[in-house]
Every structure is written in structure tokens, then in C-alpha cells.
Specification:
Blueprint (H helix, E strand, L loop, with lengths): L8 H15 L9 H22 L3 H16 L3 H8 L1 H9 L20 E2 L2 E3 L10 E10 L9 E6 L19 E5 L5 E7 L4 E2 L5 H9 L4 E2 L3 E6 L6 E7 L18 E2 L2 E2 L6 E4 L2 E3 L3
The structure holds 3-methylcatechol (MBD) and fe (iii) ion.
Length: 282
């Protein structure tokens, strides 16, 4: 099922909202009244404090109301939350990990990308542009043992900054794959270096960014989910040393341990980098 996605905030937002809904039930299993009361009361109290401290006017209150309505109309709740809130949820969730660092998932993951062997090229167009990149490494457990047949799911933007299934005119699984590591936990993935990602400027989030005088950019990144039986799945991203916006990611999701430094390799413009993953035990 390939949907037509046009190049507007509302179209990529609708696709992201639909993707999220298709994977998410409603409610939190086991959420209790006490917890909901505490969290929502504190959120509201913080909001009330801000209104008093800054003497928020009716004009500002109504502008907020109109903007929130538009976030929904544009399907941009996944984008808004993943850009400005998710990094703190991930920070808290990551506190209990010893292995590789994780970071946010963002709005553009799609499960069940085509399975690929340990040494493979990601699905891409015949004329895919961008610097060729060989991304290789090994998946081990925290005790150092190799994790045979670990699953390395990878998704990324193309050299124009677009994600397949969330932008028009891209093959369904372009630059998305599920690589199965070999018996030593090793993988070698041929891809291209993605471009920095600009969040849509024509939707509610773009309007917030412009009105607040911020910039709409994320540094170029690869997204990954790495998993193996008996181990905690890690969701992470990898960035490129010296790349634009590595130091001022709008989504606050860069960590020093996640910055790659690919070196020229082979002929032409090819680059190569090694990054190993260490998974915590489940
Ligand atoms: C992205 O590509 C992304 O990774 C995040 C977190 C938010 C918006 C776009
Ligand atoms: Fe992304």
C-alpha cells in the first residue's frame, strides 16, 4: 500500500500521524489514576505559572489555541513531540543502559523494511545521488560476546533530505532496510550520506520556528534500531563530524558518542566508517 505523499507539511504530517496510529494502541497499559493525576496536574501548574509570570494576554492565549488546532490539522503532533519533547523521554529511558547510547526515534520509522544479508546495499534508485558510504560494524553484548544474526534496522533521508513514505516520488523502501548481521554479529551496509533534514516550513511547526526566530534544521543522520534475542533493543542515530547543525540540532538529539567520522576509501568519492553496537541484556 503506497500512499501518494505530496511535498507539503500537511502531507508528510498526515503520513507520520497515520504511521504512528497504525502502531500505537490507546492508553498506557497499567496507567493508574494517581500517576495521571500527578503528571497532568504538574503540567497544568507549570503552564499556569508561566501565564502569571509573563502576564500572558488573551491575544496570546487565542494565538496558542489557533496554533494548537493547526498542529492537529497539519498532522504535526508526531513532528512537534519528537522534535521538542522526545529527547528528554529518551534521556530518562537511557539512564538504565550500559551499552551503546541511544537517541530519539523521530516520526519517520516504518517497521518491516526489506530483510537484507549482512553485507548489502540499502534499496536505492539507480541514479541515487550523494556521497557513497560504507557503514560497517559489529553487534556485541555488554560482556563482549558477538551477537550472531543481530537485527540492524536502518532508515535515512536521501541526499535531498527526504524520507521514503513521507515525501513524494520515492520508491516505497528507498534507503530503508533490515540488515541481518552474520554469525559474528558483523554487518557491512552500502548507502549514501544523507543530507541535513529541514522540518517542513509550511506547517504549524514551521510557523512556530519562524515566529520564534529559530532555525528548522537537523544535522544529517542515519537512524538505527539494533536488536538481538535476550537483549534490549536500542534506537539511535548517527551523525557526521563537522556536518551542519551537529552543534545546534533543532531536536536536541546529538550526543558526542554518536558522531561518525567517515574516511575516504576505495576509488572516487567513496567513504567508509566503522561503528560497533553494544546491547544491554534484557
Ligand atoms: C527527522 O528526520 C527526525 O529524525 C526527527 C527526530 C524529527 C524530524 C525529522
Ligand atoms: Fe530523521
Amino acid at each position: 500500500m503506497t500512499e501518494i505523499v505530496t511535498d507539503t507539511a500537511a502531507a508528510s504530517g498526515a503520513a507520520a500521524t497515520e504511521q504512528f496510529r497504525s502502531r500505537q494502541g490507546s492508553g498506557v497499559p497499567g496507567a493508574d489514576t494517581q500517576r495521571v493525576d500527578t503528571l497532568v496536574t504538574e503540567l497544568l501548574t507549570a503552564t499556569h505559572d508561566i501565564i502569571r509570570r509573563h502576564k500572558v494576554t488573551y491575544e496570546e492565549y487565542n494565538a496558542l489555541k489557533a496554533w494548537l488546532i493547526r498542529v492537529g490539522e497539519d498532522g504535526e503532533w508526531p513532528l512537534f513531540l519528537d522534535v521538542w519533547v522526545e529527547h528528554v523521554v529518551e534521556e530518562v529511558a537511557g539512564e538504565s543502559r550500559e551499552g551503546s547510547k541511544g537517541t530519539i526515534e523521530g516520526p519517520y520509522y516504518v517497521p518491516d523494511a526489506p530483510a537484507l544479508p549482512a553485507e548489502a546495499a540499502l534499496p536505492m534508485r539507480q541514479d541515487e545521488t550523494g556521497t557513497p558510504l560504507v557503514f560497517q560494524g559489529q553487534v556485541t553484548s555488554v560482556d563482549g560476546s558477538a551477537l550472531a544474526a543481530a537485527k540492524v534496522e536502518i532508515w535515512q533521508a536521501d541526499a535531498a533530505g527526504y524520507y521514503s513514505q513521507f515525501a513524494p516520488d520515492l520508491p516505497q523502501w528507498n534507503l530503508r532496510g533490515t540488515v541481518i548481521a552474520d554469525e559474528s554479529g558483523c554487518f557491512k551496509i552500502r548507502t549514501i550520506q544523507p543530507a541535513p533534514y529541514q522540518i517542513p516550513t509550511d506547517g504549524a511547526c514551521g510557523s512556530l520556528v519562524a515566529t520564534a526566530g529559530w532555525h528548522p534544521w537537523r544535522p544529517a543522520h542515519l537512524h538505527l534500531k539494533v536488536s538481538a534475542p535476550g537483549h534490549r533493543l536500542i534506537t539511535t542515530q548517527l551523525y557526521f563530524r563537522g556536518g551542519e547543525h551537529v552543534d545546534d540540532d533543532i531536536a536536541s538529539a546529538v550526543k558526542p558518542a554518536l558522531i561518525l567520522d567517515p574516511k575516504p576509501a576505495g576509488s572516487g568519492n567513496d567513504h567508509e566508517v566503522t561503528y560497533d553496537f553494544v546491547l544491554d541484556r534484557a
